[in-house]
Amino acid sequence: MSFDIRSIKLGKDVTAEDIAEDLEFLDDWEERYRYIIDLGKQLPGLPDDLKTEDRFVRGCQSQVWLETDYDSDADTLYLAVDSDALIVKGLAAIVLSALNQQSPQG
User: Fold this and answer.
1) 36 close to 87: Cβ distance less than 8 angstroms
2) Where are the domains of the chain?
3) Angle at 35 between CA 104 and CA 7, to 5 degrees
4) Is the distance from CB of 3 to CB of 44 less than 8 angstroms?
5) What is the rounded radius of gyration, in angstroms, for the C-alpha atoms of the chain?
6) CA dist 106 to 67, 68, 103, Å?
7) The pLDDT of residue 98
8) Cα separation of 92 and 64, whole Å?
9) Rounded to an integer, what is the distance from CA 2 to the centroid of its chain?
10) Residue 60 annotated among the catalytic residues of the structure
11) CATH topology of domain 5-99
12) What is the pLDDT of residues 23-41, one digit of tens each?
């Protein structure tokens, strides 16, 4: 099975506004923490062959890899991220919800 970066729905089907509304609805930090972890679990993991040195995000306590693709015809940026820490992967999912499948110009 091949990895399809364009199949990740965060940013299109699930937006940053959706996530902000969900977080606002939750009453306490533990529920919010679980929600963020669940977001990370929804992200597909990167295949091992994409977890390379050039995709590795430096400066993080956790291991994080970022894959990008740009469709110049559609002016659309596609992002995928993976981490060995669920909370970091969840936080990355929030970033993807704001930036994935968007124009790099804004």
Assistant:
1) yes
2) 5-99
3) 40
4) yes
5) 14
6) 19, 16, 6
7) 93
8) 9
9) 18
10) yes
11) Sufe protein. Chain: A (3.90.1010)
12) 999 999 999 999 999 999 9
Residue 101 has what pLDDT?
Answer: 93
* pLDDT tens digits, 66-100: 999 999 999 999 999 999 999 999 999 999 999 99
Contacts by residues 5-9 (CB-CB < 8 Å, ≥ 24 positions apart):
5/67, 5/68, 5/69, 5/78, 5/79, 5/80, 6/69, 6/78, 7/44, 8/43, 8/44, 8/78, 8/79, 8/80, 8/96, 8/100, 8/101
The catalytically annotated residue of 20, 26, 60, 74 is 60
Helix residue spans in the chain (DSSP H):
16-25, 29-42, 86-99
Residue 47 is which amino acid? P
- Whole-model pTM? 0.86
Neighbours of 34 (CB within 10 A): 12
Name residue 33's amino acid.
Answer: Y
pLDDT beyond 60 at 1 = no
